[in-house]
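Can anyone check this?
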Amino acid sequence: MEILKLGFNSDVLPVRLVNNTSSNDVCASFYFKKDEAYYLLWIEHQSPQYRENENSPRYAISPAINEGDDESPEIYCDSSKEDLFRSEHVDELIGYFGS
């Protein structure tokens, strides 16, 4: 299997991505904070054949909750809310942060 590639340099985003991937996640995840709220960026494998669900988009952003505090965050997906962003294309992901 190919190694997961982000498809972009995280320095181009106006937020700091923090790796939040755990061993039981089906894809990589990173959290970021924007306007005092937490979010998760999910990044699926670049090849759909290696994704658990081949119909999942490459990039998705979900609202998140912090069950810790700002000093020691414990970030989890807020499953009560819909994804804010879903796309197969990195240029759309970067554009989302520019909007």
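Reply from J.R.: I decoded it. DSSP finds one helix and six strands in the chain.
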